[in-house]
Amino acid sequence: MATTKRERQKANRQLRLQEMAKQARSGKRKRRFIWIGVLVAAVVALAGISVLLSDDDKKPVTVSELVSGIERRQRGLDAQQEEVQARATKWFAEHSD
């Protein structure tokens, strides 16, 4: 049977452990908010620098220029695909015997 002094010690120890856990959670939360604040500030700073350094004399891209660029890229991809297919066909022809 535990004495009242021992019961008080156990209760006080439990309270101390609970308080330490509460402080640890609070510290974690505080560090998380600080990191989030730093990241937001960095993103805002980078966006501001980007706006300040951007060239305001750029002309807007027209739809026809955009389409011609896409078509040019597609022709390049088609040529690459044909080359790969030709090499694969040649390899299979050489190794099928």
Report what the structure shows.
The protein is mainly α and 97 residues long. The chain folds into 2 domains: 1-58; 59-97. Helices cover 86% and strands 0% of the residues. It has helices at residues 4-53, 63-95. The longest helix is centred in the N-terminal third of the chain and has 50 residues, at 4-53. The mean pLDDT is 90.
Keywords, separated by commas or semicolons:
single chain, 97 residues, mainly alpha, 2 domains, 2 helices, 86% helix, elongated
Give the tally of structural domains: 2
**Secondary structure: number of strands:** 0
Q: Structural class, from secondary structure content?
A: mainly alpha
Order of helices and strands: HH
- Low-pLDDT ranges: none
The level of helicity is over 70%
Summarize the structure.
By secondary structure, the chain is mostly helical. It is built from two helices and no strands.
Write the layout of secondary structure elements.
Elements: H1 4-53, H2 63-95
